[in-house]
Task: structure prediction
Amino acid sequence: MDLDAAMLSRIQFAFTISFHIIFPAITIGLATAIAIWEGMWLKTRNPVYFQLAKFWIKPFAITFGMGVVSGIVLSYEFGTNFSKFSELVGPVLGPLLAYEVLTAFFLEAGFLGIMLFGWQRVGEKLHYFATCVVAFGTWVSSFWIIAANSWMHTPAGHKIVEGRFEVESWMEVIFNPSMPYRLVHMLLAAMLTATFLIGGVSAWYLRKNRDVAFARKGLSMALWAALVLAPLQVIVGDFHGLNVKEHQPIKVAAMEGIWPETETGAPLLLFAIPDMENETNHFEVKVPKVASLILTHSLDGEIQGLKSVPPEDRPYVPLIFFSFRIMVGLGMLMVAAAVWGLWLRRKHPQFESKPFLLLMNLMIPTGVICTLAGWYVAEVGRQPWVVHGLVRTMDIVTPLPAERVLFSLTLFVVTYSTLLLVYLYFMAKLVRKGPPDLARLEQHMLDVNAPSFALEWVKKLQREVVED
Amino acid sequence: MDLALFYYLLLGFAVLMYVVLDGFDLGLGILYPWFKSEGERDHMMRSISHVWDGNETWLVFGGVVLFAAFPAAYAGILSTMYTPIMLMLIGLIFRGVAFEYRFKSERSKPLWDSAFFLGSSVATFCQGTILGAVVQGVKVGEQGALDWLSPFSVFTGLALMVAYALLACCYLVMKSRGDIMARAAHLGRKLVVTLMVILAIVSLWTLIANTEVRARWLDGINFVYLMPLPILSALFGWLLYRDLDGQPHETRPFWLAVGLFVLGFAGLVVGLFPYLIPHQLTFWQASAPDSSLKFLLPGIFIFLPLIFAYTLWGYRIFSGKVEDFEEGY
Result:
């Protein structure tokens, strides 16, 4: 690998976007969960919901802050490092990103202040409204980003006039062939990320035997969510795979490690080490015909292989191959954990199984890892194209001196590594500190003239805490 | 009106909104060394912690308008200003996370204080430098490592730091009481004087260095039409100086300072129109195809008024002084 400016720019972009995506993946789901809890609290006045909302709003806030600062970088990086790309596809992607800012960024930023700091300044209904708007904003934001990103995978609705892109149909640009699959897949990934974060942290409290009522509620809700979301994600992933096979068959060939020009009855490779130079795999562990079954829904289905295109049109196979297996493997683990949780519910509604709690605890980062792995499969799989079939990545990099990119890349690596450590440190600190105590909640109930049944809830919970 | 002109004005508007809004919260960071106690710094940060994120969104908006409507200018300016943009981004990152972590830390608080101060200062200096380099007319596409760095751009970098700090002083006068307010007003007076001198120097320097700006300003009758800009600026400066004295007026200084920014910005646009990059690229040459410009129009007409409405609403909810008893989230 030649470390010239082009490669350094690509590494920098991959690095900064990988860092950024961690945070939206968490906040999209977390914002939704907080909105649900706050709504449940208003409806039932069960203080556990209020505790959940009040507690998770803090991790949400620092995660959101990290997402904001790392996101600003991305909106400028197209111009700094990929100036020809900006000139060429600015007319297509620019308006989509502008719509994102207009419909989502401002909305989130405008209501975030009220959500975080408005507890004493606005009534509880208005506060709840602000929370819902922030959650809604994160969804809208994903919509535009995924639309823009999907267009780069399955471009549609454009024409090329005098060497530059012009849009003929914005509907076709936005709702391009892969967009619906990619959007649902990404939103589910974000929901699952938050689900396993909430479930894992709750499980940790249960293992430590503290804040039990709070943790049981959190874990229980997370497990119901996982039970719906994880299998659903498997199904959506399958549909998405079929869509990729139709539009980007070489990406699928890389995911499955299929080398021949075409292969019928292709086996599912559980493990292998792809070798790009010799155009083959080593150490294959395979299940016959299953890849064909999954991708064509027929045992003898035909799949296009990597050798059907010249080497310069193939992506870097090993990264895609392994990322794909990590994503699928952890996804299956999520399904298994959700089913185990369901089974436990029948006999031990209190989730007293130590191994299960430990597993949930250890699975905290799985959502983030899956999201990153999936992202690599999609993005690396598109190479060597930046806009699939139309624009090559190597042709759009700003001709910068290598040392200048190396300088900025070093800055980002140092800054982001520091920030990640700080972020993890403060997240751990917030978790150790735990939810707000019930005495303060009781006071709050009195302050807002909460109905009498709500006070009963608090008293009951306080008795439980003493008994625990 | 042709679409490109509309977007040129929109871009100018976005930049102005950004400069004014993020200006006061970046300025607070620059002012940190003059407010040393933890209580004062808490107060300052609390006065902006609910709005800084929205303010910074205007920077992203400006960026995407440039990207969407003038892709050629976006590509040219950003790739040429590579180093100051990267430094600005790093500065913005450090100050942005300082908001979150400062209030949650005990031992590391001084560290976040310096992150906030340094981040704000570096980001501001870089913004001023980029502006200076663009006005001066750095050749786009040429890749000398330090082309953006010149005596003029360094001066405009420092000038912007003074201007943001002044805006922050006026904001602080509005948001605080007693000792902090008095100190902010006192500092503000010194900064007004400094800024007026700087404005004069920058104006003359631009007239001397940039022949097109000189032609625009000094040719024939133009001079008469444009005279209100410097005259009003001087008047605003004088009013501001007076308002910050003794018992300062609480909200007027802030609006006067905003007025100064508007006038300064108008002076700049008048000098450069219709160029996005002086001598090299007009906004007509840089504009995207009509299909892109048209697609974005409804979004702008529907959402910008909405954004204004809820942003104003948000500011109103948190209007008045920052109260000491107020808890976070």
